[in-house]
Design a protein that fits this description.
- By secondary structure, this protein is of the alpha+beta class.
- It contains 3 helices and 3 strands; from the N terminus they run βββααα.
- A 3-stranded antiparallel β-sheet has the order 1-2-3.
- Strand 2 and strand 3 form a beta hairpin.
- The longest helix has 13 residues.
- The protein starts with 6 loop residues before the first strand and ends in a 7-residue tail after the last helix.
Length: 73
């Protein structure tokens, strides 16, 4: 499974953090959630942290789920 890439974040005045993926807005965090995200991004791999916080985190089971008989059309 490839590692996530293409995520960036900007910290704005007032404690707001905006996360983008390949230049497109993915999510905005405010208040304590923004502070928690910044602390986590500093101590771990920022790309993985941003992927998880935006919900764009691949688990490696997409191909298996696509081939399941229930999901065929």
């Amino acid at each position: 499974m490839p590692r996530p890439h293409g995520f960036t974040y900007e910290q704005h005045a007032g404690g707001t953090v905006r996360i983008s993926h390949h230049g497109r807005p993915a999510t905005t965090l405010n208040g304590p959630r923004a502070a928690q995200f910044l602390a986590e991004a500093e101590t771990s791999d920022p790309q993985l942290v941003m992927a998880r916080w935006t919900g764009n985190y691949r688990r490696g089971n997409e191909r298996t789920a696509r081939d399941h008989p229930r999901n065929r059309r």
